[in-house]
Structure formats: structure tokens, C-alpha cells
Amino acid sequence: MSRRDRSQPNPPDAARRDLPAHDELYAAQLEIYAAEFGTLYRRFRQQSAELEAATHAVVHAFVVALGAHDPYTRDHTQRVQASAVTLAGALGWRDGALEDVRLGALLHDIGKTSVSDTILRKPGHLTDTEFQAIARHPVIGAHMIAGFPALEVARPFVLHHHERWDGGGYPDRLAGQDIPPQGRLLAVVDAVDAMLTDRPYRQALTLTQVTRELTRGRGRQFDPDMVDAFLDSSALTLYRAELPDLPG
Ligand SMILES: [Fe+2]
Predict the structure, then answer these.
(1) In whole angstroms, what is the distance from residue 225 CA to residue 36 CA?
(2) DSSP code of 8?
(3) What is d(CA 101, CA 91) in angstroms, rounded to the nearest whole number?
(4) How close is the Cα of 23 to the center of ligand 1, in Å?
(5) Confidence category of residue 160, pLDDT binned at 50, 70, 90
(6) Residue 15: its pLDDT value, please?
């Protein structure tokens, strides 16, 4: 037992001298582990920051490449992103889920960089071969982000935004609740944006016509709950600011 005067301060060295030999060894090992943990943690933080910066750079590169390839899809993507976040908020999605919506919407059409701009801008009807080329873009987009763990959350948006509630969509012909909610959400806002803008093969629909089309597609092309939430949200009014020439 120690005979030390307990009224005096207790410097670490003195404290260690008070310990039995095995406790002293244990304390020394803990100090070493703590130091090693601190070093590993600092290295982990640094590598995480580097990985995050690299992932942002990759996303930026994807978006720039898509914009250069097809300016319409770049602008469409920005509007879809704002509209998707509005709809997700109306559905009660919060925080991390909203961040996932932002990322997923931003990346949802990156697979179109693989589609010839002649096909993307073709004014007339698409041949079967041309349609097949466009219909591959969700799968190709999913492949493009597959090597990046931080982009995994975007996968359901990228892969499933062209599925239909009735099972007639692509690429996996999923139906109803089998379609991930991210895909069901994006299917609505993606279709609305396409309907509200001039396309090479037709002019923009009016807001009234779009509302009618959504109602017609409710439970057929679109998740009925998503349609209801969209029509109850402020998502459509966003388009009045984004597209000032939009007819009523
Ligand atoms: Fe798409």
C-alpha cells in the first residue's frame, strides 16, 4: 500500500508508482492505444474530407459533362431538383432524406451522356432502336455512380425514375410499392417538367393540361399519393417563376 501524503497534489508519475505492476502496464498500454486512436482518427478525418472533396468533384464533372452534351437536360435537371425537394418536403421527408433528393435529382439523367444528341434532339417519332438507346440511360447512369459509396443514395433516383406505377415502365418494370419511393417521387416531377417545357417533338403543355395529365396518370403511370401530394404542394407554382412565359 502507498504511504504517500494524500493532502499533496497527485502528479501522474507518483500516481503510477502507486499502481501495482500489472495496473501500471495496463495504464501505459491505454496511453499508447489513446495516442494511436488519436492518430488514426485524425487520418480518418483527413481522408474523409479528401474523399468528400473528390466525390463533389466527380458530381460536378458529371453535371458539366451532361450540360455540355445536352443543355436542355442541364436546365431540366435544375428545375427537377427544386421541384423534387418541394415535393419531398410536402411528403414530410426531412434532413438527410432531402439531401439525398437533391443529389438524386441532380444525377438522375447523367446516363444521357451516353445517348447521341441526334436522338435526344430528334423532333420526330423515335424508332424502336432509338427508344432502346434512350431507355438505357437509367442503367448506364447507375453504373456511372456505382464506384462511389457516397453516391449510393442517388441510385434509386437514377435507376427507377422511369418506372410506372402500373408496371409498364423501365428498366425493371417494377410496379406499385415495389418501386422505391425515390423513383416514384422523381417520376412525377420529371414528367411534369417534361410536359411544361417545349420538346423537339411537341410544345409545352399549359398548367391546366399538366394537372389534367397528372390526374389521368394517377394510379396508372404515377403513384396516386405522390400525385396528390404534388398537386397539394407549391411545386407547380415554382414553374411560374422558372418559366415566366408558361401559359395558364
Ligand atoms: Fe430520365
Answers:
(1) 52
(2) S
(3) 12
(4) 64
(5) very high
(6) 58
The cell numbers describing 179, all together, are 418501386
The one-letter amino acid at 86: T
Specify the length of the chain in residues: 248
List Cα–Cα distances, 162 to 107, 133, 218, in angstroms.
14, 14, 15
Cα 92 to averaged position of ligand 1 atoms, centre (Å): 24
Instruction: Assign 2 a pLDDT band (cuts: 50, 70, 90).
Output: very low
Give the Å distance between the CA of 138 and the centre of ligand 1.
7
Q: How far is the CA of 58 from the centre of ligand 1 (A)?
A: 20
Whether 149 contacts 120, CB under 8 Å: no
pLDDT tier for residue 10 given thresholds of 50, 70 and 90: low
Task: State the Rg of the chain over Cα.
Answer: 27
Cβ atoms of residues 223 and 165 within 8 Å:
yes
**Residues with Cβ–ion distance below 5 A, ligand 1:** 109
Looking at residue 124, what is its pLDDT?
83
Q: How many CA atoms lie within 13 A of 139 on its CB side?
A: 9
Side-chain half-sphere of 184: how many Cα atoms within 13 Å? 26
Topology (CATH level 3) of domain 71-242: Hypothetical protein af1432 (1.10.3210)
What is the Cα–Cα distance from 232 to 248, expressed in whole angstroms? Answer: 17
